[in-house]
């Protein structure tokens, strides 16, 4: 970690990686949380794979991809998060995977309760509400106090578990997309386990910028994206189900292409984006060459802290994400307290300062502006943001 901390400040070192990405002229992108860039070499590999599959068609796919290449890729993804290959299945994105896990969770009975909070992704909230309509369960929806602390987050869940003894399943987002708050997953999952509550983890923003061990976290079910911080093409994600808990997720809508003992039966069977999948060996090689999540996360946190430390506490600005290192990552949200319309301020940042950001709403604490540096962002970019925020406040 000391090496990563020192390197996080080394602009020349990170410029060698930034130079591997093609960037369109225009605004400085501080909305890298939507999806990440592919490196130039990954784009070239992707294009070669498109041409390969187009030329060889089903001959290659039936003889090579389905029988060999897809299994090797699956094993590489399993190594990425330190789990057995038989515990992951490919999906198009985290949302699709999380919907499958929620939809097919088999341990619910009419009258049971499921839990979501205000910071969950809307697709996850919608899937839980679908359970209520179709399984006869009740959705418990909670809001977190603001500003959040480690203890306030954990206590909110503990109090909710005590008040609702019929809770059986909960959604939990590792890194919340609205504010960038990092949830204390291990502590929450341990408290949930004490009450017999299963956790489905949304790891979309965590994979690639936070180091974690699912066994250590106490997580049996999770969904991930590969297009945010790993550097893969769009349309790639995967789910994880602990092998000993596979029977608690039913095959997806009676899926029969794989036996019930195979996790791949838990996702819809379809023709995937094979050219994109074939880029993953190179994508993962570049991810590790960059230092993996440890190096990426430290760099993103460094860039985040550059601007947050300069503007937190200034009149007219509220930084919503706390500074407890357990609770933040590269994504952080703020708002202009003397401006009612945060979208108007996003437009000011773009039009007056050439900075591209995005408004996120839905959290109980109100609309906010999400600021997400990326691997092509620099300390100078953060200084430009600081200047803009100080002048606009």
UniProtKB/TrEMBL annotation:
Residues 59-369 form the Aminotransferase class V domain. GO terms for molecular function: transaminase activity. Keywords: Aminotransferase, Pyridoxal phosphate, Transferase. Gene3D superfamilies: Aspartate Aminotransferase, domain 1 (3.90.1150.10), Type I PLP-dependent aspartate aminotransferase-like (Major domain) (3.40.640.10). It comes from the Bacteria. It holds the Pfam family Aminotran_5. This is Class V aminotransferase. The lineage of its organism: Bacteria, Pseudomonadati, Pseudomonadota, Gammaproteobacteria, Pseudomonadales.
